[in-house]
Predict the 3D structure of the following.
Amino acid sequence: MAEYRTPITVDGSKVAGTFKDFELLVKNTCEDILGARKLFFSLDPKGKDRLEAKPPWWEHPPTKMYNYKTGEVNAMVTVPHLEVGKDTVFYMHYQKPWFAGLFDEDSRLIRWFRKYMKEGD
């Protein structure tokens, strides 16, 4: 599996105090995670210092943290420390199988087939 990561920055100018173990909602639709089979968050880019993450407790019926078919991320991530005026960076890590995207409409493989192969042959 290929591993990828995306940095997430909490703007310190928008933090209204100093917080410890703050649960932060990460909600977005991210095309990068389409086809991802594993998703987690960490403080370091190598993924060693993992952060606790779970689906939001108020979702009924309960949801998953992410949907690999739509790319939607919906996770409560516990950030150990937030501080006024200090940006906090953490990372969303995800893994995709080696063949993810291989047969997408705009992949190089499909473009090659369209160029060199005729439909119906």
In short: The two ends are 34 Å apart (CA to CA). Strands lie at 2-10, 19-29, 38-42, 50-51, 53-54, 66-67, 72-82, 88-96. The longest helix spans residues 108-116. The first strand starts at residue 2 and ends at 10.
